[in-house]
Amino acid sequence: MDIKNRIQDLAGNFYDDVVRMRRHLHAHPELSMQEHKTAEYIATQLQLMGIPFKQGVARTGLVAQIEGRNPEKRLLALRADMDALPIFEENPVDYKSKNPGIMHACGHDVHMASLLGAAKILHTLRHQFEGTIRLIFQPSEENYPGGASLMIKEGVLENPRPAAIFGQHVFPGLPAGKVGIRSGKYMASTDEIYLTVKGKGGHAATPHMIVDPVLIASHIVVALQQVVSRRAKPSMPTVLSFGRIIGEGRTNIIPAEVKLEGTIRTFDEDWRAQAHEHIREIATSVARSMGGECHVFIDHGYPFLVNDQQLADSFRQWAGEYLGPENVEELELAMTAEDFAYYSQIVPACFYRLGIRNEGKGIVSNLHTSTFDVDEEGLKTGMGLMAFLAIKRLEEQ
Q1: Planar angle of CA 114, 151, 376, nearest 5 degrees
Q2: Which are the catalytic amino acids?
Q3: First to last CA, the chain
Q4: Which of 106, 135, 208, 232 is exposed most, by the fewest CB atoms within 10 A?
Q5: Predicted TM-score of the model (pTM)
Q6: Which pLDDT belongs to residue 396?
């Protein structure tokens, strides 16, 4: 039996176990850097498989290694993220979150379960490949500075450095059984913008006696749109959005201060730095021209994510071999962000999408929503393909 059929058989054999793992993880979500019980659960599963691991990497992360024949010959890495989101789940399912206000609404439960399933397959087949496979269970993908950057600082990509790293992410835009990939730049950098507009508060009926920070903030939001429409090259994808405005006034009270929070995302580091300067210049000058002031803080977030061209080409070939070429889709450029980007800036990386949609079952909700769920048939694809990619990459090296 060839390696593809062997892996597909094992994925079928381990499917029920992986569904159980996913449901346990989904029912017990934990927020970023609080994944203590999640880490203990993963540690227990690795112990049961007989796979050596290290806990406490970047506080709650784990790193495990599966050694094949000649383990020092070559090394690659597989990564899954662990944290959940502050969302109240509304799904009427048996595995609904038991931690009110916390939910695996981004599919990290699927990522962990798939990697555990892949680990089980690879450990079973360890005598059939040469080299070592490093398993990275990473905390805090959802919050700055990102668990990937912390794990990198603690040496997860060293001693020795992996020749490549794979990561996968669930994607409601693709049916279960399909995967998606894009070569080169794929996901945007992301920075958080915090503006504090200061004026002079007072009674709404005496506007001549105040400096209205609500009005100033409104002009700033409008003026900042020119960063994208007039300062960015039309060929450079850029998004600038504000999602939060706080002005603690009333119908007849003008506050002395208004806070704005937003994000800017793009795909070029030079332009990224220029855009930050434009934001500072425009926000402060608009406020000054209207008699107020604006304090600008831009939290430098994740870099843009790059899929190595050669590795992405190999992914298309291997995924097509494993799933059938009709089940491998080309993805559009995404303005969303992922801290997997940190890995992609250091070693050849491949970050692909795992289909989990099933319209017949009503599984259609988007990521980061209270009704997000997955077609668990996608787990079979998730664990099997990841194991297949690992072995094919070791063979190619």
Answers
A1: 15
A2: 83, 141
A3: 23
A4: 208
A5: 0.95
A6: 85
